Amino acid sequence: MKQMHVVVVGAGPVGVVAAIAAAQKGFKVTLLDAALEVDHNPRAATTHPSTLDFIDQVGLIDEFVKQGLVARYFQFWDRDTKSRVAQFDHDLLKDETKFPFVVQTEQHKLVLMGLKRLDTFTDASYQFGITVTNLAQGSDHVILTTQQDGQTGQIKADYVIGADGGKSTIRKLLNIEFEGYTWPERFIVLTSIHDFEKSMGCCYRNYFAGSSEWANLFKVTGDDYKGRWRAVFPARTDESDEEALSDASAQKRIIELEEACSLESIVHRNIYNVHQRVAQKFRVGRVMLAGDSSHLNNPIGGLGLNCGIHDAMELVSSLEDIQKGADDTRLDLYEKRRKTLNVQFIQEQTIANKKRLEEKDPNARKDRLDELRKIESDHVLQKQFLMKSSLLLSVINEKNITL
Questions:
Q1: Does residue 106 fall inside a structural domain?
Q2: Exposed/middle/buried for 361, CB within 10 Å: 0-12, 13-18, 19+?
């Protein structure tokens, strides 16, 4: 049997997981990234139970848990009254998963440990600082044209996975529309060394509903493993980047969230645009999209990275089926499954998460918070809520989607 060569474009967490999973199946794997090194900027960190199972499958779970924080609970708070509304306990999922908890591990740590794991496979390699500039497909192959250090080259593959992010070169080369919209407000991230758990009594993952401003707050270990808290706020639509990231703005937002905090505790600031978009297609011939290249969503609930890793694992499973004799319609099934679930679960759920936190109408706001209290008080309802928020229900439903 001819060894299949899979080229993965994009060495972020989705691309790295896809590369490892493909190498485990015995494929020759080439992983490419345009950047010169791994991006260490604060980005996604929340990894749900369903995704932890996939991290386990690619042989990284022990190191992944070791480098992160285990978060059994998450909480909703009312900013207006500074009171906790509800707490949800992942332990209710203990009969459904090996991992009834969330792990907060920054995505660059997953990439670094993943690259080290990839090094253990004889037929797998990765290169940074190499850009894909063109692609052409034949009936049984894909040829990528590349640029590296001013030199043009070509790489021939059986299949290509485009996991190169929201600005995906692969998606653009395939002329695939990225349908959806960009939220009018950007999101501000303030990273602080203040101990919110000690001063507020909160857990590691917290969502604050507010009639004037919502917020998210969660803890990661940081590169020094001393702990960092990331607080996320919406910028005003008339607020410039400079104003949003200024000392005055940062101090006002962080102190209004927790008065015991201070400007001096903030060690990093960032602001970014937020999108709800899904690619018109996830596949053209022998080239497939996965992760942010095929879908983007607001980060409330921490579903984007998780969904991307689910894409990677389903895609590699599809390629394994083809290696065993299935025809290329198996990739049509990949597209149908991942696009359907992204629209039905990720897009709808993240939009609902945002609306729950930002509701300003007093009656509607009360109804939303009362609903959370009701769910918390009923273990059956709470488990149903957790099955959806953890994407375990998505994994179950995926298998029921057929062509």
A1: yes
A2: exposed
- Closest of 17, 16, 19 to residue 7, by C-alpha: 19
Residue 224 lies in a domain: no
Query: 154-173 as b/e, with b when 16 or more CB fall inside 10 Å?
Result: ebebbbbbbbbbbebbbbeb
> Which residues sit opposite 144 in a β-bridge?
135, 155
User: What residue numbers bound the domain in which 50 lies?
Assistant: 5-71+102-182+276-356
Q: Is residue 192 part of a domain?
A: no
SS3 content of the chain, % helix, strand, coil (to 5): 40, 25, 35
From residue 27, how far is each of 121, 147, 316, 320, 368 by CA, in Å? 10, 24, 10, 9, 49
Beta bridge mates, 278: 179, 295
Residue 183: DSSP 8-state? -
Total structural domains in the chain? 1
* CATH number assigned to the domain comprising residue 23: 3.50.50.60
Residue at 33 is within a domain: yes
- For the packed helices 49-57 and 304-323, what is the interaxial angle rounded to 10 degrees? 40
Q: What pLDDT was estimated at residue 285?
A: 97
Return the axis-axis angle of helices 13-24 and 107-118, rounded to nearest 10°.
30
According to the model, what pLDDT value does residue 180 have?
95
pTM: 0.97
Q: Which residues of the chain have pLDDT under 70?
A: none
Per-residue model confidence (pLDDT) at position 234: 97
Q: Are strands 73-78 and 159-162 parallel, antiparallel or unpaired?
A: unpaired
Q: How far apart, in whole angstroms, are the C-alpha atoms of residue 11 and residue 4?
A: 20
**Secondary structure element (H or E) that encloses residue 193, with its range:** none
Q: Is the dihedral of CA 326, 53, 303, 88 positive or negative?
A: positive
